[in-house]
Model the fold of this input.
Amino acid sequence: MGYSSTHSEIRFTILPHRQKESESILSAYPNPGTEILNIQLNVVGKTSQIQIIDLSGNKVLTKNNLQNNNGILSIDVSELKSKPYIIKVVTDKEVKQLRWIKE
Done:
């Protein structure tokens, strides 16, 4: 008995990720930062609140009813202590978080 083997070749192309309109973007800069925190928002829903939370879970700063400039919010963080924080953005449709460091 003979044994035969066949080899198949599969080719595929990886396409760049395209953001769907329903996807959110949240970024903070500079990171680490010192006095002014800029938060770039492209989130689903109306932004109602931004919270800055220390790693112990304490809310150290809360901003409500936000007005943004082309999706960028600037917040004075000069009074915060130098350490890592979580930035939490709350909208009427979702909650997004990211880590930020105050120098």
